[in-house]
């Protein structure tokens, strides 16, 4: 898989054996828009206010998914270790859908390769 403007490719087959490096590890923000919040709450059949209370944290003027500490790792609250995958996959935020083709990594391929074994380039 390639994307215009990026000098690397991505092999999604690597995800099955990776252990979810991009959803775990160091702490970070997983930003969600208002539309995405509605979609995830709907998927979980939850009241939106309850969803915000239980799963979001405020980061400045934006919202991020919460993390939880598992064996020293900051896991996204929706990463399911037992299934090695995202428990809200069909409603995952744009930030997750667009990984690993982020502007941040455009010129930081070595850093990206350390996180994601699916990078070719
Ligand atoms: S870090 Fe890369 S290989 Fe691992 S789950 Fe994320 S996208 Fe897939
Ligand atoms: S929402 Fe899903 S894909 Fe995004 S970081 Fe959390 S577990 Fe990973």
What can you see in these coordinates?
With 121 residues, the chain is of the alpha+beta class. It has one domain. The chain is built from five helices and nine strands, in the order βαβααββββββααβ. Strands 2-4-3 form a three-stranded antiparallel beta sheet. The chain has a two-stranded antiparallel ribbon with strand order 1-9. Strand 3 and strand 4 form a beta hairpin. It is globular. It starts with 8 loop residues before the first strand and ends with a strand. The mean pLDDT is 96. One iron/sulfur cluster binds next to helix 1.
Unreliable segments of 5+ consecutive residues: none
Q: Report the helical percentage.
A: 25-40%
Side by side, the strands of the main sheet go: 2-4-3
Q: Counting H and I runs of at least 4 residues, what is the number of helices?
A: 5
Number of strands: 9
Tally of discrete structural domains:
1
H and E order: EHEHHEEEEEEHHE
**Ligand inventory:** iron/sulfur cluster
Q: What is the CA-CA span between the terminal residues?
A: 12 Å
Average predicted local confidence, pLDDT: 96
Q: Nearest-angstrom radius of gyration?
A: 15 Å
Measured by DSSP, the beta-strand proportion falls in 15-25%
Shape by Cα distribution = globular
Secondary structural class? alpha+beta
Main beta sheet: strand number and arrangement? 3 strands, antiparallel
Properties at a glance:
alpha+beta; globular; single chain; binds iron/sulfur cluster; 121 residues; three-stranded antiparallel sheet; two-stranded antiparallel ribbon
């Amino acid at each position: 898989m390639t994307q215009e403007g990026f000098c690397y490719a991505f092999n999604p087959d690597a995800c099955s054996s990776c252990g979810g490096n991009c959803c775990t590890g160091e702490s970070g923000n997983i930003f969600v828009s208002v539309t995405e919040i509605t979609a995830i709450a709907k998927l979980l059949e939850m009241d939106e206010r309850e969803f915000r209370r239980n799963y979001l944290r405020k980061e400045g003027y934006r919202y991020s998914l919460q993390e939880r500490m598992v064996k020293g790792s900051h896991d996204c609250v929706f990463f399911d270790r037992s299934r090695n995958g995202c428990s809200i996959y069909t409603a995952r935020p744009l930030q997750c859908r667009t990984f690993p083709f982020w502007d941040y990594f455009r010129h930081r391929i070595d850093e990206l390769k350390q996180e994601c074994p699916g990078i070719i380039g």
